[in-house]
Specification:
- The complex is a heterodimer of chains A (110) and B (111).
- The model of chain A has no long low-confidence stretch (mean pLDDT 93).
- In chain A, strands 2, 4, 5, 6, 9, 10 and 11 form a 7-stranded mixed sheet that branches. In chain A, strands 1-3-8-7 form a 4-stranded antiparallel sheet, with no helix packed on it.
- Chain A has 110 residues and is mostly beta strands.
- Chain A starts with a strand and ends with a strand.
- In chain A, strand 9 and strand 10 form a beta hairpin.
- Chain A is built from no helices and 11 strands.
- Chain B is mainly β.
- In chain B, the strands form 2 sheets. In chain B, strands 2, 4, 5, 9, 10 and 11 form a 6-stranded mixed sheet that branches. In chain B, strands 1-3-8-7-6 form a 5-stranded antiparallel sheet, with no helix packed on it.
- Helix content of chain B is 0%, strand content 53%.
- Chain B has no helices and 11 strands.
- The chains are: A mainly beta (110), B mainly beta (111).
- At the A-B interface, strand 9 and strand 10 of A face strand 5 and strand 9 of B.
Chain lengths: 110, 111
């Protein structure tokens, strides 16, 4: 049973739309992360948070933004989706040590 | 140079074979080490942690060589269900991003 949830699982959306990818965890973890991964390619860190009101950009330049108003919730927002944003987005959390990943959101921008 | 380097493969092995994956890391201050498994179009899942003394979990054996900054994963008697990408993951507490993922080694076990 998953302790970290991502919604939606799949999303197809038109160019220029604003979207928010949801990520919630029930483990009380302080540290949360967003990764972007194209099929067959490596994970790229795009955002991370060490706790409430703490957010940082990762290694991969991203036009997305994140917020961390509550410990359990770490949503990612794209203000204006583009076809180049088509990818899988994975959320993860940890209290230190190994990560637990959500099932991901597969985003397609048409 | 990447912080964590893995042979990308693919490794295509017959069922029942023994296969070994290697991984090197560049930061000598790295503290903890993991192997993750990722199935196609799925999220990565923790396979096992890697301890200094080496550790075994069923058919899987992980080893760490701190002097050479080298980690390995050995899979014995490979099964079709072992087909996946295996990610080497390193934790160094000095990094704000905490965990660094290798790019993965793809394994296909053939019948």
């Amino acid at each position: 049973e998953a302790d970290i949830y991502q919604t939606p699982r799949y999303l197809v959306i038109g160019t220029g739309k604003k979207i928010t990818l949801e990520c919630s965890q029930t483990m009380g973890h302080d540290k949360m992360y967003w990764y972007q991964q194209d099929p067959g390619m490596e994970l790229h860190l795009i955002h991370y948070s060490y706790g409430v009101n703490s957010t940082e950009k990762g290694d991969l330049s991203s036009e997305s933004t994140v917020s961390r108003i509550r410990t359990e919730h770490f949503p990612l927002t794209l203000e204006s989706a583009r076809p180049s944003h088509t990818s899988q987005y994975l959320c993860a959390s940890t209290q230190g040590g190994g990560y637990t990943f959500g099932s991901g959101t597969r985003l397609t921008v048409v | 140079r990447k912080e964590v380097e893995q042979d990308p493969g693919p490794f295509n092995v017959p069922e029942g074979a023994t296969v070994a994956f290697n991984c090197t890391y560049s930061n000598s201050a790295s503290q903890s080490f993991f192997w993750y498994r990722q199935d196609c179009r799925k999220e990565p899942k923790l396979l096992m942690s890697v301890y200094s003394s080496g550790n075994e979990d069923g058919r899987f054996t992980a080893q760490l060589n701190r002097a050479s900054q080298y980690i390995s994963l050995l899979i014995r008697d490979s099964k079709l269900s072992d087909s996946a990408t295996y990610l080497c993951v390193v934790l160094h507490p000095g990094s704000a991003r905490q965990l660094t993922f290798g790019s993965g080694t793809q394994l296909t076990v053939l019948p």
